[in-house]
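Minutes, project check-in

Agenda point 3 was the complex the collaborators sent over. CS summarized: two entities, 224 residues total, and the question is how they sit relative to each other. Sequences were read into the notes so everyone works from the same version.
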Amino acid sequence: GAVVSQHPSWVICKSGTSVKIECRSLDFQATTMFWYRQFPKQSLMLMATSNEGSKATYEQGVEKDKFLINHASLTLSTLTVTSAHPEDSSFYICSAPGGLTDTQYFGPGTRLTVL
Amino acid sequence: DAKTTQPTSMDCAEGRAANLPCNHSTISGNEYVYWYRQIHSQGPQYIIHGLKNNETNEMASLIITEDRKSSTLILPHATLRDTAVYYCIVNNAGNMLTFGGGTRLMVKP
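CS then shared the predicted structure for the full assembly.
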């Protein structure tokens, strides 16, 4: 199946700093990627849709100026958490549609801890 | 997106078949049934999907009722490593997925 990678797998940062998370489709191209976050003991919640060559679309309640998304190529989308605070600590996961039937394949996730 | 209903949790004995049900009575004609699982602290893993016909791959079998209002994921010989949260999701191909609570499957020795 199609492979999606994320980097880093985990990151710890100080409050007020910015953190960039990368999502790559390794063996296929994706004009659209999706970003989710998951808090402990909760299900995945969609944050935004990343569109190659155009602006991302954000779900209601997700601050676009805080969670900057850049989809600069057909294999890479980045999520930057700006001015991170402890409440941004979460598990961030990306997905991309691939294969013959555009099945969503997920990355391994990035655990962000903001101190 | 059509909503799905799954049991909150299930137990299964190691080596036995695990049958995970899912109801999706409002599914529309062009929506697929997808199954994913999430092992603790990992991203969701794709298992299988189908539109109308039953499907089988190396991981599992998917049985979809004729009216498409429900389906069952079958893990033929469950192992301890199959312990995870299993999500049944219906959607059009390529679209973002909406996750419900899923079924927490516990495989016991």
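Noted in discussion: The CA atoms of residues 2 and 99 of chain A lie 7 Å apart.
Follow-up: revisit at the next meeting once the mutant set is ready.
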